[in-house]
Amino acid sequence: MVPTADNQGGLEWRLIRNWMVPGRDGAIPRRYQTWVDVHSGEVVMRVNEVKHIDGKWSMPATENKPERVVRRMGIDRPSMLVISGIMQSEIHDMYPFQLPIEGAMPHLALSFGASTVYTDADGGFISTATGPQEIDVNLEGAWSSVYTAGVMPSTSVNFADGYNTIGLNNLGNLKERSAYRSVSRIHDHMKEYLPGFDGLDFPLTTNIDVEGECNAFYDGVSINFYDLAGGCNATSLIADVVWHEYGHGINGYFYNSLGANFNNGAMNEGYADLWAMSLGDIAEIGKGFYTDNEDGIRQYDQEPKVYPEDLVGEVHADGEIICGAWYDTHLLLGGDWDATMALFVDAYPGLQATAQNGNEGQAFTDVLIDVLQADDDDGDLSNGTPNGITIIEGFDIHGITVFSYAEIEHDPMEFAAADEALIIEGEADILFPYSLYFNAVKLWYQTATNGDWVEMEMTNPAGDSMFEAELPAQPNGSVIAYYMGIVDDFGGLSAVTPVAASNNPHPNLPHYLLVGVDPVLVNDSDDYSDFGSWTTGIPGEDSATTGIWEESIPVGSYAEMNDASTIVAPTMDHTIGFAGYAFLTGLNPGVNDGIGANDVDAGHTTLLSPVIDLTAYEEPIMSYWRWYANAPASGANPATDWWQVELSSDAGATWQYLENTLQQDISWRRMAFRVADVIDVTSQFQMRFIASDSTTIGEYLDGGSLIEAALDDIILYDRANPDGVAEVEEDIVSGYPNPAANAVQSNGWMAGSTLDLYDVATGRLVATQRVGGSGQATWNVASIASGTYVLSGVNAIGRPSNWTFEVKR
């Protein structure tokens, strides 16, 4: 605030902004201290601070003196006022559902003759030109050049001498101006944290209303935005969508400046989101994307995406894992973006995203280690870092640990003989430098459904990549559940096998090992229906409109054809494979008909077993193989609908849960349990399997999700007769004919177990199939080459067994 003279000779206080305006008058420099009234734009005072000797100067002749040359020192005479001011226009500051506001047009190029000046971040400028002048102003500045259909918006503007307040509502349209301003803002944000990076210090082509709908994209040389269409708003009006697309440019050009490429799609999408979120201090990307609601397309303050169970092979969905890790770390750091971005830009040059698609575990692990190194203050990670616990917690929320890159290779044990030590093996490559933080490979097991988990460290007897655990021998009729994982020095758990088996409160199914059992009743939907008739859908109780349970041959569905990683509904049953039957929640009309053609919609559907008398069995053990999807990559409202399995001991009068989970597993997985561990063993045992699509009016798609479920190979086992086992020869499997030309039949295998066919000469796995309810397997060998082959599996008493035969023609 400064006092200035008013029109009555008194003083008035004014809020002024002080500018220093450089310039030249021929060879003489100028540096004007200029006071501008913030409210009116009036130039209150201007003083040239340059004092100089200007050499010889010709004094004109006067009446009494002739023309002469003198030397002078002093202050230059005041010059005419220069053109200055502020450039503004109506824009959407953040979202299209908000009213437009009058906002600054930053970094806009203004060409006065041969001289071009740029507005500052607030739209202000001071030129060296004098007015009045009329110039053409294009929608182009230091960081963005805007085009619609190849044409750059332009308008003619009249500038008066001194300070000008210019409205540019006729410079293009609202979409064009909003996108221009958003690009300028994200560039300024980038420079705040990467001041030494100049790879994007040029006007990036910004294309508005490109052909298409409901999208925006970066193509390596430009950012592109779609118009209002298809139920979606113009994406140029959504500031954080513009920031996100520019974020792709930051990622690419920054890596290029280091001689590398930003290869990983998930990292690229996640980091583009993070650039946008850190500028807007937001947790949701794309609010206002749709015309019928204000919801966004990605939200980071809800249920977290977790590696690896939520890794689905779609870059936007997978990017939510790494961006979510950064966002939760940001919150744990107190919500301070300066603190978060300081770590981010320190770790950014670590080139983690050079990892190819499909190697997200490696990329995510490298990010975590680089962030810890960025936070380290003494060059020794082993003694912790100032914010190490916070960083590890933030990343661990999303399943990212030091060994996120790793996997444990394991062939599940399905059956075993009683009273023998059980050796379970897993193979894990512990690579340098991650090995510096390795603690152990561990196994957790449980011998009673819903019982306590026992933790044990797996040994590494050969010092290679193979780890093993020896479980104590179990009696006939036992069910062992188990899973494995890698523990690091920070306490992080990685590489859990099966995926998500350690999750709380909704764990995935562990592996189940049945000890000393005999199959007694089988329903495989193909050859055996020992339980009786099942009820598919319950009229009057179920509410689903599509995706009703039925028994049929699976057709399957894919989000993207020819991409096996995008499967949603099963393409084959569990027992036979192609052409085998299973229980399904609605048969897809065709494999090309889309993933939502006949999924569960608008309610729940129930598969009900017949009433089963279990009183004749000593230790009844029920098992089934199930498939469940509620969060595929392209599905809406992921992981919000339940898979439920309920048991009754009174023919359905009352029910209690066996499974009640939001955790999907888009593959055939086995559940097994001792009935007595869960419910009373009676003559009125019954099961029901429920898949649901909940409805919440007002949410996106009214809360609808993409739901697929399937069930197959429901088998009741009982405790094996120990006397009968003792009388059986060690190798009880057999087969015929041998040699064979077209088909072989082999007997003596454990019903429902996996049987592998190997080529003896090469060791190659030729095929895999399931053993039928009678312990028999039939193989078509007409299409395989002559030679010696071996069937490998588990025999009827639970012991590993092989049968060798010859194919001969």
Average pLDDT figure: 89
Q: Which homologous superfamily in CATH is the superfamily of the largest domain?
A: Neutral Protease Domain 2
Morphology: elongated
pLDDT below 50 for ≥5 consecutive residues: which ranges? 53-59, 69-79, 724-729
Structure write-up:
By secondary structure, the chain is α+β, with helices and mostly antiparallel strands. It folds into 5 domains: 2-75, no CATH class; 176-396, Neutral Protease, domain 2; 415-515, Immunoglobulins (Immunoglobulin-like), CATH 2.60.40.10; 518-722, Jelly Rolls, CATH 2.60.120.260; 731-807, Immunoglobulin-like (Sandwich), CATH 2.60.40. Helix content is 15%, strand content 36%. It contains 9 helices and 49 strands. Strands 22, 24, 25, 27, 28 and 29 form a 6-stranded mixed sheet that branches. Strands 30, 32, 35, 37, 40 and 42 form a 6-stranded antiparallel sheet that branches. The protein has a 5-stranded antiparallel sheet with strand order 31-36-41-38-39, with no helix packed on it. Helix 1 crosses helix 2 (239-257), helix 2 (239-257) crosses helix 3 and helix 4 runs antiparallel to helix 7 (388-396). It is elongated, with a radius of gyration of 36 Å. The model is unreliable at 53-59, 69-79 and 724-729 (pLDDT under 50).
